[in-house]
Design goal:
Elements (H helix, E strand, L loop, with lengths): L1 H8 L1 H23 L1 H5 L3 E5 L2 E4 H17 L7 H25 L5 H8 L6 H9 L5 H9 L8 H34 L4 H12 E11 L12 H10 L10 E10 L4 H20 L12 E9 L6 H8 L6 E7 L2 E13 L2 E10 L2 H12 L4 H6 L5 E9 L6 H9 L5 E6 L5 E10 L3 E12 L4 H17 L3 H7 L7 E6 L13 H9 L9 E2 L5 E11 L9 H24 L6 H8 L4 E5 L14 H9 L5 E6 L3 E12 L6 H11 L2 H5 L2 H6 L4 E3 L1 H4 L3
Antiparallel strand pairs: 1-2, 1-19, 3-16, 3-18, 4-13, 4-15, 5-12, 6-7, 7-12, 8-9, 8-11, 10-11, 14-15, 17-18
Helix pairs in contact: 4-5, 8-9, 10-23, 11-20
Length: 693
């Protein structure tokens, strides 16, 4: 009993100790796994230790998103924008690092010359004028001497911040220009390069060729061993270098779409709506039903652009209702509400007069007496004015003017109305009216079949059941087809924001990057609940190179090794067995073709892949001598040069230098500047730590 009493008396203490120990364990594990993130919560990525700030990144992402919205794009997926912006910021960091190494700087004198004074850049002057200043000098003086111009302190601060931002951007631009000039100068053609490039394209050889495709031999006869694969791998190992850890995942995507029952229910709802529209005036039959969208249209029949709607209206009577279109899950219903012949548009001259009624009437008298709108605008009498504007009288925005414009005397200005909130008057002159046209008044009613809650729940339950029964990546891939699921494969890295660019799959990527090899995820849904995703981690590559066990790489290396074995077999079979190309064509059971080969061309006409071996051997071959058999990209070949045509174009060193730059020099290299600068730079990408969904 005494022992029990001691335990009871100390239970609170023991409980406290246990809780503290558990918290220490949990927090220790939590902080260890996320130590870097929580000790540096504003760093999105590091490039050789240089930090990319999350706030600057977010600002730039928002700018791009806003630009796309302003351009009319809707339903914007933010993940590709984030990827694009981060790639650009990493490139900028790499550029800055390279310029630091090279000692490229912009001096104060260079910056001042570019921004102010007689040599100011036109773009700087234009920016200053956008802020309302005559010049960059004027901008600078007023920003940094505000008391001289009675500029409020807060306004001065804003101007100073804008100026500093302009300075920063200008300095970056000048520095990049210096780097660009050096880059263009370093990878420039010398006389030998220019002449070599000319020579490579100065002659074209006409060639007789016989070839046997390697595919004519059975793969089963040429076994490929692990040693063969390793030999191919070792030859090309640097092609398979990993910039980041990589994971291979299998995933299943289930689109949440309406079931057969949903479609049947939708059909009944559409039929009920049609009956209600027929029985009730106007569109009252669907008023209040949020499943139906109603658009009231009044337009000349000739201007209806939807062919299905126009075809339906062609044979409809007033108050008749029809389904004009039923495509997939979308219905379009039309109801003809009225039909008439009326003027649909007028051509007008327009002017805006500021001031009182007397000023308005004075302007109208001058215009009606023959004064020109342009002249009154030039002298400042009019605030705005334009001649020959076509106005649609069927546009709802023109409803308030319709009666006036139809009744107005043509050729004379009249007062239209007062601009709300201003002492300004609009005046117009009707120049001409179009002849009355057949005008239809109709309702276009749309309906979209959506998956029901029961359908959504069933699809999720089915995928959850599959995941729960297949908890390893092996069974996930093996059993998916049996459950009528298609398995797809993706390769992801810490930089990945989606599975194969599939929108709203970031959550699956984030899970996979934290999971162990062989694990299977829970079911994820996109934000709109239109897609379900499950992911399985198939493999993890965290070394310096992609291993030969990678399925795609293994297939590639196996194909190379098998091609080499097939080619060796064919070459051994045919070596020395023929004297002419025709002889070899007979042995190969093929025909002789004639092709033109230029050493400098990227591709030979008639071949589906590049053939560098053929181009090199043709360039070195003597006319009339049979060369081969030798291995090409996908075949074993024998050829004979029968003619060589020289280019009629004279050597032009300047033109050849420009061509060299475009094909092999600075222009060509600039297209790969990001990859070149990346090199072996250490990039730590932590974007998934910030964006989990």
């Amino acid at each position: 009993m005494a022992t029990l009493e001691k335990i009871r008396s100390r239970s609170v203490l023991l409980f406290t100790i246990i809780i503290v120990a558990l918290l220490a364990f949990i927090l220790g594990d939590f902080l260890t796994s996320g130590r870097t993130f929580f000790s540096d919560p504003t760093t999105l990525a590091k490039v050789d230790g240089k930090k990319i700030n999350i706030n600057e990144f977010s600002r730039r992402v928002e700018e791009v998103r806003a630009q796309r919205q302003n351009a009319g794009y809707t339903d914007i997926d933010i993940a590709p924008i984030q990827q694009q912006v981060l790639d650009q910021m990493i490139f900028e960091a790499l550029m800055e690092e390279e310029m630091d190494k090279m000692g490229i700087v912009v001096t104060d004198a260079e910056l001042s010359s570019a921004m102010t004074g007689p040599n100011a850049l036109p773009m700087i002057t234009a920016q200053a004028q956008r802020y309302g200043f005559e010049s960059a000098d004027d901008f600078y003086d007023k920003a940094f001497n505000p008391t001289k111009y009675n500029i409020p302190t807060e306004s001065a601060r804003q101007l100073q911040a804008a100026w500093v931002d302009m300075e920063k951007n200008t300095a970056e631009m000048l520095r990049n220009q210096k780097f660009g000039n050096l880059f263009m100068g370093v990878i420039a053609a010398n006389t030998l390069d220019a002449k070599a490039l000319y020579d490579e394209n100065a002659s074209t050889s006409k060639v007789l060729i016989a070839k046997q495709d390697l595919s004519t031999l059975s793969d089963d006869d040429f076994a490929v061993t692990d040693a063969d694969i390793k030999a191919q791998y070792d030859k090309r190992k640097n092609m398979f270098r990993l910039d980041e850890p990589r994971r291979v995942v299998d995933y299943i995507v289930v689109d949440v779409t309406p079931s057969a029952a949903d479609r049947a229910a939708a059909q009944r709802e559409v039929e009920d709506a049609i009956a209600a529209l027929k029985a009730q005036p106007g569109t009252e039959g669907v008023n209040g039903n949020v499943n139906f969208g109603v658009n009231r249209v009044s337009t000349p029949k000739a201007k209806i652009t939807n062919r299905a709607v126009k075809a339906a209206l062609d044979s409809m009577a007033i108050d008749e209702v029809k389904v004009a279109q039923a495509m997939g899950t979308n219905y379009t219903i039309v109801k003809l509400l009225g039909q008439s012949n009326e003027v649909d548009s007028v051509n007008v001259d327009f002017a805006l007069v500021e001031g009182d009624i007397a000023a308005r009437d004075s302007v109208m008298r001058r215009l009606n007496a023959g004064a020109k709108t342009a002249d009154l605008l030039a002298e400042g009498t009019l605030s705005a004015g334009q001649d020959s504007i076509w106005l649609s009288l069927l546009d709802p925005q023109a409803a308030s003017l319709k009666d006036q414009l139809l009744a107005a005397e043509t050729g004379r200005y009249f007062a239209v109305d007062t601009v709300a909130g201003q002492q300004a008057y609009r005046i117009m002159r009707v120049k001409t009216r179009r002849a009355p046209v057949n005008t239809l008044d109709y309702a276009e009613i749309t309906y979209k079949v959506e998956p029901s809650s029961a359908t959504q729940s069933q699809l999720r339950a089915d995928l959850n059941k599959f995941v729960s029964e297949n908890k390893t990546s092996a069974t996930f891939a093996e059993n998916a087809p049996k459950a009528n699921y298609a398995v797809m494969t993706a390769e992801i890295t810490p930089s990945s924001l989606a599975l194969n660019n599939l929108p709203d799959t970031r959550e699956g990527v984030n899970w996979a990057m934290d999971a162990k090899k062989g694990e299977v995820s829970p079911v994820f849904a996109d934000e709109a609940n239109t897609r379900l995703v499950a992911v399985a981690v198939k493999d993890i590559y965290d070394g310096e190179f992609i291993p030969t066990t990678d399925a795609n790489l293994n297939r590639y290396l196996t194909d190379l090794a098998r091609k080499d074995k097939k080619a060796a077999k064919l070459i051994a079979d045919y070596q020395g067995k023929g004297k002419t190309v025709d002889d070899y064509a007979s042995l190969m059971k093929t025909q002789v073709d004639t092709v033109s080969v230029t050493f400098g061309q990227p591709r030979i006409v008639g071949f589906f892949t590049a053939e560098p071996a053929l181009q090199g051997k043709v360039a070195a071959a003597k006319q009339g001598v049979v060369t081969g058999p030798f291995q090409g990209s996908n075949s074993v070949m024998v050829f004979e040069v029968i003619d060589v045509e020289k280019s009629g174009m004279a050597y032009d060193e300047a033109n050849s230098e420009a061509q060299f730059s475009r094909l092999q020099g600075a222009d060509a290299m600039s297209q790969k500047a990001s990859q070149i600068l990346r090199g072996k730079a250490k990039v730590e990408n932590r974007i998934q730590k910030f964006y989990r969904k």
